[in-house]
Each structure stands twice: as structure tokens, then as C-alpha cells.
Amino acid sequence: MVVGGGFAGLSAAVRLTKRGVRVLVLEARGRLGGRATSFEDRETGEPVDNGQHVLLGCYTDTWAFLGEIGALGHVRLDPALAVTMIDRTGQRTRLSCPSLPPPLHLVAGVMDWSALAWRDRLSILRMRAPLRLARRQMQPGARAIAASPGETVDNWLIRNGQTARLREMLWEPLAMAALNQPPSRAAAPPFARVLAEMFGPDPKAAAIALPTRPLGDMYAEPARAYIEARGGAVRTGAPAVVHLREGRVGWVESGADRWDSAAVVAAVPWFALGDLFQGDTAPLEPILARARAAEASPIVTVNLWFDRPLFDEPFIGLPGRAMQWAFDQRSIVGGALSHVSLVSSGASPLVARTNTDLIEHAHQELLDALPTARRVRRLRATVIREPRATFSLAPGQPERPGVSTPVHGLHLAGDWIATGLPATIESAVRSGHAAADAISGHLVIESSGH
Fold first, then answer.
1. For the segment 186-221, what is each residue's pLDDT rounded down to a tens digit?
2. What superfamily in CATH does domain 79-83+94-206 come from?
3. The pTM is what?
4. What CATH architecture applies to the domain 296-391?
5. What mean pLDDT value characterizes the chain?
């Protein structure tokens, strides 16, 4: 049984289903997707994601999951890392990494980037050694340490000779997108791990991928179809309670229904974990206490609809601004209207502001970056707040748990599990796969052909 219908829960359920286990997925909300979902805008009728989600070429588990459920065609992967950036002065430039062996492709791309002075470009060479260390640190039993646990991203980049301009144009936008926290607050080790995976042996690992369908259609419904076609079941609007007794899973309840289950994957966010269990929770108390103590980091998305298109690229970076990225939904997923999503990660300074304030601020930043937008009429605007979009990665935060627990038959999954990665889609899917693998090791699967 899997409790939670986001990337973590559905990836766990799909892997178990593939191995012959009949799975029941219970999702409390009325739709699948967890914190990566979509809904219909009431005025335009367009599907709107609850925040723009981006994948990378190095998301190996995510690609495997999407491939299993037949959803690879729902994502467009660029051939290499290529990003248009408009700095605070309005200068528009493009970082484009050529097809060279890593990390030479990044070095060559930065060396050719007109946004930077030569001093800034040359400073990228000082990142070769830290990136090699980070790659070695990924190996089992490795003693290499690319960044110390108490070090922030800012301190790590400065210590490794990265200039202020290169930090503003490249590293800070990457860090904010990956960590959902300002580099001055986020711990360096998760960022070093992200860079190690992005700029590893595969030149396509750093390539950016965008869903070409709303998130519900992109992965959630294909996963549901996969599970149900193989004898499993998926229920939405089904809040669950997991009863524990004598150090093991007892039963699971949802409304008037009750199921005995030998194994449960709790694929809920860290802030919902404590409400999931009843009964003998004492063995879980160290994990629950850490979950209660973990802080959150918000994301704010402002959606603006216009009477005509503003730019001809799927997305542009807006470094040095409150809204760090602008995504053209019409070119990504289609639609009759020009629809731009402006995203602010690590949005603690913004999340308490009024909708009117946020809309005007986001629109003004877009006008500053794209003066031609002054000739375009705004038709509609909405704000989406995710106050607990991700867990905090600030130094000193509680240790993240693994998928296994002291309760027999209970496993955890979610982007907040100790995968080594920050709160990304890939972290969620890796944890789901790891939970399924752990359960498979304890279950005897009896099905034809196995």
C-alpha cells in the first residue's frame, strides 16, 4: 500500500507493480500529483501547474519512471545546456554549451558567454577541482569532501574563486532553482552534488527538460493507468491513517474502509508525516521529531496572460531579480493565449505580500527585462503560493531520514528523504524506487512469469 500520489508515491507504486505486487495508492487530495500537480484556471479554462517544474538530463530515475509508464513523449529535453539570460541592465545574452566532453562543455560555454568579462570567464576554471571532488564523493565509500556541511553555497563559491558576476549570472540562478533557497542560506553539499550530476560524464546530463503537458497529464494519470491496468488501484479524495502496533504496521484506514497490509510506503511531505500515524508511534519518534523541526522554503508563481506573445523561447532567466525565471507556457504546452509564468524560488521575502503587490512587481520586472512588453496588454493575472514548497537546506537543519524505519513493514518516500539531492523531482523518484526496492526484499512475489 502506498499513501501519497505524487512523484514519490507513484514511482514506488509503479516499480512494485512492475514486480508483480498488486498495489493500492491512497491520495488525500481530489487529484494526483502532490506538490507537482495542475488545475484548471477558472477564467481562461487553461490547465495551470501549481508551479513550473523543470527536469534535467541527469535525472536517471525520473527518465526510467517516465519510460515505464509511457510518458517520455510528454517531456521535451534540449540537446545541451542552453539558457537565455537578461541581466538587471537589460543586457540579453545566451549561455550555450557545445557538444564537448564534460566538464569542457561548461568551460567552453562560459568562455564564449558575452555576459561576462574575461576575469569572470576564467574563474570557471577554478571549479574543475571542486567538481572532480564532488564526483568522487558520489562513489561508495569515498572519503572526498567537496564542501563542508556547515558551509553555505555562497561561501563555497567564493572560496573556489568564483567572481561576483559569474555567481550572479550562473551559479546563483542554478542554486536557487535547485535548492529553493538563497545561496547565502543554503548548505553547499547538496549543491555540489547537483553540479556533480549535471556536469558528470554525460554531456546531456545538464540539459534542461520541460513538461509539454500539464503535470497531471504528464505523469500522474499515465502512472494511474499503468497501475490499474495491472490489477492495482488508485484512489483520490482518500485521506489515510496508518495504525501501528508492537513495532510493525497494523492496518490502514481511509474513511469507512480498512485494509491489512504487510508493507506501507508513506510518501507524504515531511510536514504531514506526524498526522499519518496512530497507535504505537514510539519507535518512529526520532524521525517524527526531526520532521517537526525541519523548516520550509516557499515558492511564489505569478501567472500573467497577455493579448499576444512576449518572447519566442520556452523560458528566460532574470538574474538579480525577485522573479528569477519567466516561462512561456504557450510555447511549452500550447494554448490559445500568451501565458507567462514568473517564478520566485526561495520566496520568503515575497510570500506574505498581497496578490496585487506580487502581480504588479512581477509585471514590472518583466517590463524591465523586455521593454517590448509595454506594447502588450495584460488580460489576466493569478498568484500561486507554495509556503512549504520544499524543506530548508540551511546548515544545521535536522538530518534527513532514509527510506527504512524502525517499524517493520513501514518505508518512507519523498523528495525530503536522504537521497543526497535537494528537494527535486529526481530526489522524490529515487526515494520512491528505493522504498519499492526495500519492500521487494521482504516480500515474496507470487505472480505468473516471476
1. 999 999 999 999 988 888 899 999 999 988 899 999
2. Guanine Nucleotide Dissociation Inhibitor, domain 1 (1.10.405.10)
3. 0.94
4. Alpha-Beta Complex (3.90)
5. 94
Stretch 416-438: mean pLDDT, rounded? 97
The H or E element that residue 412 is part of is: strand 410-412
For cell 524505519, name the residue: 405
pLDDT of residue 449 exceeding 50, the answer is no
Q: Under CATH, which architecture does the 2-74+213-294+396-440 domain have?
A: 3-Layer(bba) Sandwich (3.50)
The grid coordinates of residue 66 equal: 517516465
Residue 73's alpha-carbon distances to 61, 220, 254, 319, in angstroms, are 16, 14, 35, 31
State the Cα–Cα distance between residues 14 and 364, nearest whole angstrom. Answer: 44
Q: Does a cis peptide bond (omega within 30 degrees of 0) precede residue 203?
A: no
Angle value at C-alpha 179, between 175 and 400, nearest 5 degrees = 145
φ and ψ at residue 98, rounded to 5 degrees: -75, 170
The CB density around residue 225, as the number of other CB atoms within 10 Å, is 14
Spans of all domains in the chain = 2-74+213-294+396-440, 79-83+94-206, 296-391
